[in-house]
Design brief:
Elements: H1 7-23, E1 29-32, E2 55-59, H2 66-74, E3 78-79, E4 82-83, E5 86-87, E6 95-96, E7 106-110, H3 112-120, H4 130-135, H5 138-145, E8 148-151, H6 156-163, H7 169-184, H8 189-195, H9 199-220, H10 239-249, H11 253-274, E9 285-286, E10 293-294, H12 297-307, H13 311-315, H14 322-325, H15 329-332, H16 335-345
Parallel strand pairs: 2-7
Antiparallel strand pairs: 1-2, 1-8, 3-4, 5-6, 9-10
Helix pairs in contact: 7-9, 7-12, 8-9, 8-11, 9-10, 9-11, 10-11
Length: about 350
Amino acid sequence: MPAFLPGLELSRLFYAEAVRPLLGALPHAAARLGPGSDVLGLDTPRSTDHDWGPRLELFVDDDTGELGAMLSEMLPRRFRGWSTHFEPPGARVRSMADTDGPVDHYVTITPFPDWCRGLLGFDPAGGVGTADWLGTPWQRLAEVTGGAVFHDPGGAVGAVRERLRWYPADVWRYVLACQWQRIAEEEAFPARAAEAGDERGARVITARLCREMARLLLLLSRRWPPYTKWLTAALPPTAVTWHLSEALRADDARAREDSLCAALEDLAARQNASGLAADLPATRREFFDRGYAVIGADRYAAALREAITDPALRARPLTGSVDQITDSTAVLTDPARCRAVTSAAGGP
């Protein structure tokens, strides 16, 4: 096996040295975007066994198949030691393989608006409305704004990436409010489960809360939370991250509670520093009279909701974006289902 190098670097070299010389004067844009750990910058040697290798997205306005056929005939069978042939042809998951004939390459050739509609369910060049923001999974937004663009003479790819870089302020407030609300619904449960003698339950709920806090940290940091496999790998090295690790390691209910509250206090301070809503004391408090310590996450949800200037968005139930409503892969990988779910959940 050749020495590993990050997939984005391999794709950049593949475009510059193998694909670009074959295109002549053909107008095009080229990038490595979409699904893949390489787009998130999280690929490792393990990633090379599927959907990884010399690959890229080639955006052209018009192609009836001749360009793909030409690349199959003209591309080298190997590039920098890695095969440019992928099997099985046309499958959802493909792997590099040897061939003696034309290569079945992994160069996606399509008009850029069509590629956007396939991945997102809409073309952001025409504008991005509230329904678009809430109905698009964070992972898909990360796939468009991550990766790398190698050639974009008209600037269309870069303009869409910039437009999807982050939420408008009111949508950001709404999504953050929904994330705080998710935490509010369960923040007292680890202590209650431990008090009832259900240590396993306390650990399961703690892990759920840590997932929600990890997402909140990324949202407050203006970073799209990736899907579960990469969620904690994407966390910045902050005090919140350390406290979450301590909560997951804790064998004692009080130590677990202390770590969860410490993480929430840090997140609350970040919320205050964002300027998106009125400041609130970033300190833990007792949950009613039960002796459990919580942050009172619903306070932050309410403050953010109050700060929303769009009346329709402020009146919307705190169901959130599609990622906050469901974690079903069958939904999150289907743009039409994503929109249907958020529309139904946000209705009267």
